[in-house]
Amino acid sequence: MAPLANIRVLDLTRVLAGPWCTQNLADLGADVIKVERPGTGDDTRGWGPPYLKDQQGADTSEAAYYLSANRNKRSLALDFTTDAGREVVLALAAKADIVVENYKVGGLKKYGLDYASLKQINPRLIYCSITGFGQTGPYATRPGYDYIIQGMGGLMSITGEHDDLPGGGPQKAGVAVSDLMTGMYASVAILAALNERHSSGLGQYIDMALLDCQVAMLANQNLNYMTSGQVPKRAGNAHQNLVPYQVFEVEDGHLILAVGNDTQFASFCRLINMPELVEDERYRKNAGRVVNRDSLIPLLASVMKTRRRDTWLADLEASNIPAGPINTIDQVYADPQVIARQMKLELPHPAAGTTPMTASPMRFSDTPIQYRNAPPMLGQHSEDILREELGWGDEQIAALLGK
């Protein structure tokens, strides 16, 4: 039995934050029914190229972006703005454990699909709304997009090279981290509500906002500001609180050196034949190294340029000093550790034969993740859902789906 076997999720989300949440639930064994607009479906189905190739090498309609967040779900193509479509969603919600939606604030109320309405027919329902700014506050009605949230939430103010260096200035992360982190927080909140329901017997409403999650995920940078009154600035590839903990240029490229404590720093100084640095009061402790980074880093940078990357990595590992390469994504999937952890897999796909997938990082000793389905094609399971979940016959299905 998967951890969430027998849990039913009605997924009214699209793009990334909501689908990332519901893919987590699906990977954990929940039966996730993804309700999509007929004809177009989830917006990300068209967010390409690249698209998944069919067995003849031609593009399918499935964008790689969509594939990344919709594994293990079933797709129901349904227009719930019609009376017939709305009744189907209501019937499914009555049997669901969880509803996840990411429409604008109040967007589902006019269809009777808001929490207050659905709670009347299913008091055990856990209902999670994901929006840019939450259900309250002066920005509640604004649309929220990851890129904007990264800027508003402070991430871009601390990401990128120093302003006075070439290439300096605000920089977004390489993936939609606000969306992804909100999806993760939403997953945790839903599971907590599911556990609480064992005690109360009742569901509850969960209000998730991208901006809230972006602010929360600044972690140590939040407390750096709150405790010092100093606004953190961009530090490029250096760390605000640890030194040396950054990218260094080496003879044939770059590597990451991540000295996390004073013992590691002493080992590093022995490795580079500069034991005098450990005796220098400016550098002996991390606090001193942070304050005096401008004098220390040039000394280390000069030494790091004297050896090739792989030589450094071998020597650093032998000395128990954390370090690593900066891999391109193709190198990631060729890495022996990534291969050993089986982070890439293939799932059968009706249009392409198979589709590549990145595995879930959640590993269980007794109830492992089950990769049941590739991300569904639009409406792939419509007939099955209507027949199996609602007991509809052929005529009813044909009338609704226009077949």
From TrEMBL:
Pfam families recorded: CoA_transf_3 (PF02515)
Entry keyword set: Transferase
GO molecular function term, any single one: CoA-transferase activity
InterPro entries tied to this protein: CoA-transferase_III_domain, CoA-Trfase_fam_III, CoA-Trfase_III_dom3_sf, CoA-Trfase_III_dom_1_sf
Descriptive protein name: CoA transferase
Lineage: Bacteria, Pseudomonadati, Pseudomonadota, Betaproteobacteria, Burkholderiales
